[in-house]
Amino acid sequence: IPQVLGLLVWALIADTTYHLHAAYGWVMFVSIFFWIVTVLFFVIYLLQLQLKFYVIPWPLVLMIFNAVATILYITAFVTCAAAVQPTSWRQWDYNRRAAASFFACLVMIAYGASTFFSFRAWKGLGSNAATSQVTDHA
């Protein structure tokens, strides 16, 4: 979900005159960077490359990545929402920037939920009683 929503933020801001406002440069950087890195992680897990690089603690890496993405998307959301001006000289710029702020908020929430679930996976809190019984006696 963060890939699709992040792509929407990127596309909506890119379709405005964002180069005239420095604040939108930060929003563009955050949305493009995390979209690319999230797609890379998706490909790594899709191709099961994490099994080949077993030395890397993948649950910890994902938790740190999701936490950093959440924090930076908070700043991007606040920046984008604060820079939206209802008295914009082009009405469609206002609409697209307001929509980008909304989707940036959704991406922030999605990365926050991913941080929570990756923290649980890193700590091993996702196991149930049946799997812990089997592994205890094996």
Q: For the CA atoms, what is the radius of gyration?
A: 19 Å
Indicate the overall shape. elongated
Through-space gap between termini: 38 Å
Helices, by number, come to 5
Beta-strand content: under 5%
Work out the helicity level. over 70%
**Can you count the beta strands?**
0
Biggest sheet features: none
Order of helices and strands: HHHHH
Low-confidence stretches: none
The secondary-structure class comes to mainly alpha
How many distinct domains?
A: 1
Overall residue-averaged pLDDT value: 87
Would you mind describing this structure in some detail?
It is a single chain. This protein has 138 residues and is mainly alpha-helical. The protein has one domain (1-136). It has 5 helices and no strands. It has helices at 2-14, 22-46, 58-83, 91-123, 129-137. The longest helix has 33 residues, at 91-123. The radius of gyration is 19 Å and the shape is elongated. It starts with a helix and ends with a helix. The mean pLDDT is 87. InterPro entries: MAL, Marvel, MARVEL-CKLF_proteins. Residues 1-123 form the MARVEL domain.
